[in-house]
Amino acid sequence: MTTAPTHKDFLSRIEQGQARIGVIGLGYVGLPLAHALHGGGSQVIGFDIDPGKPKAIKEGRNYLQHLGDSMITDLRDSKRFEATTDFGRLGECDVIIVAVPTPLGRHQEPDISYILATAEAIGKTLRAGQLIILESTTYPGTTRDDMMPAVFKAAGERGKNLKLGRDVFGAFSPEREDPGRKSHNTRTIPKLVGGLDAASTELAAAVYRKGIAEVVPVSTAEVAEAAKILENTFRAVNIALVNELKAILEPMKIDVWEVVRAAATKPFGYMPFFPGPGLGGHCIPIDPFYLTWKAREHGRFTRFIELAGEINTHMPHYVVDRVAEHLNDHGKPVKGSKILVLGLAYKADIDDVRESPSFELIELLMHRGAKVDYSDPHCAETKTVRSYDLQMKSVALTPDTLKQFDLVLVSTAHSAFDWDMIAKHSKLIVDTRDALRKHHGELGNRLKMA
What we know:
It is built from 15 helices and 13 strands. The protein has helices spanning 7-15, 30-39, 52-59, 69-76, 113-124, 142-155, 198-209, 221-249, 256-263, 287-297, 303-329, 357-367, 399-403, 419-425, 440-443, and strands spanning 20-24, 43-47, 81-84, 95-98, 130-134, 168-172, 191-195, 215-218, 338-342, 371-375, 407-410, 429-431, 447-449.
């Protein structure tokens, strides 16, 4: 068995860029992280179960549009980076960072099966002198109570002589990616790091300092896990607040978007959140329920979180009801009407469709008998996602196309959409994103907000 380097020696190797880093999961989180650490001078191996991702990197093909082509070519052309599906090579890595999905199960319970499967793969090649860092968002205690025990269990006899905090180290560092955001990126977003012990925290912080400008150590992995849950719960609760406010103000003929912007002029004590057709992305619709589940284990109930979830998950139904009302006002039933949904991605100017409310909007409209198409310049066709397999292709957005539809539903406000053309040639519009504000006057009764 390999002799463990001392903590001091391990730290020195990390700081000098001699430690080899493995990143498991080359998706929205893992790929930019691998690029940032590589850019800081580290040797990086990227692991993924999908053979298409290492193949795409080798061929210089960008499979995540919002990251830009240069990220892929930087990694492809470097001698310090390689991508593989061979998890047997995890033993080559001194540092292993886990960035795999953490979805919800059928009954809104946490599904950490990807973490546990990855832990088992790590355990099969576990050796002395390895640091394992979890980045996947999860409930407090996962790193200590679930992942690391699974690693040691998979290691079997070899793991019995390895001691956590002396031979093998563990930490949690929450991902804070926001696809499409221009103001910050992986290198500039402060990185929280909490270890299972003081030595693990120090080592993990040193790893991230190789590629990230600001690293913020916290006392434990549990603090870092809980901080990530708080960040996304904060957003989910505030989005639910403005979504509820929208439904309240609409019959009063008060513009909720104008109200939010007016309140935002206050320079303290307020942060603007805007309503929408529902929550999308991997974090905000999912993460708060991890805390809800964990709280029940301790006999506590998360009423704010559950109420916010109830409001946000109802929003697609609210929007479809507004579509029905708008069509009815113009003498048309939903059944048989042709409806075009603008935007499949969950937010503007990206191709990320994870948990996008557009899928539910399309399905709800179809269930009411509407003939539905979608248009999205970033998503040429629908992919099979957790609850949907729509098997649809994006239609080209032209004046002639718009004239064929009884109603256009704005779900995602991509900047690539020609809003002037949409305003001019659409018969009816329901706008959930305030994308057509400047056209309010000319559209008149052809435009409804939702």
